[in-house]
Design goal:
Layout lengths: L10 H23 L9 H23 L8 H8 L2 H20 L1 H16 L4 H22 L12
Length: about 160
């Protein structure tokens, strides 16, 4: 369990990568014009990447002095970064994108909203269906009628 003084899984690795990439950004920004003057093209990128590098070093120092959490290793990192709910909703959005060409934007949006609302809100399927239908109706009126945007209809209906 994480307390305010313990690290999250992968936090030290992230802090180290932050310093490495900030150092690389500083090196690349230095390559633009070097330290030849305050009005040269590389000054602002060097300033921004220098701030990134300095704050990255402070963050790295802080993570190195704090104790690690009990959950360590790749499984703990993957469980922390990709909780089941996030993975499932990512798959749901991918399915939404995949079915739009076949069933159209409005039915796909209605299905996505129904599943999302029903899953995240514990009011039951009737409320989820009502809110989904109302939302899709508002989307249709606003975009299809008012702004006259052509919404994809899908190949199954044509």
């Amino acid at each position: 369990m994480k307390t305010p003084d313990t690290l999250r899984p992968g936090e030290r690795l992230f802090a180290l990568l932050l310093v490495v990439f900030a150092g690389y950004a500083f090196w690349e920004s230095y390559g633009i014009s070097g330290f030849k003057g305050l009005t040269t093209g590389g000054v602002m990128p060097m300033l921004a990447s220098g701030v990134m590098l300095a704050t990255g070093v402070v963050i790295l120092y802080d993570t190195l002095r704090r104790p690690a959490s009990a959950e360590t290793g790749l499984p703990a990192l993957l469980a922390y970064l990709f909780p089941l709910r996030v993975v499932l909703f990512t798959a749901l959005v991918a399915a939404f994108v995949a079915v739009i060409p076949y069933i159209g934007f409005l039915p796909a949006s209605g299905a996505l909203l129904f599943v999302a609302i029903w899953t995240l809100w514990s009011k039951g399927p009737v409320w989820a269906m009502a809110i989904s239908a109302l939302s899709v109706g508002v989307i249709y009126l606003l975009f299809g009628v008012v702004f006259q945007v052509i919404l994809p209809t899908g190949s199954l209906w044509t």
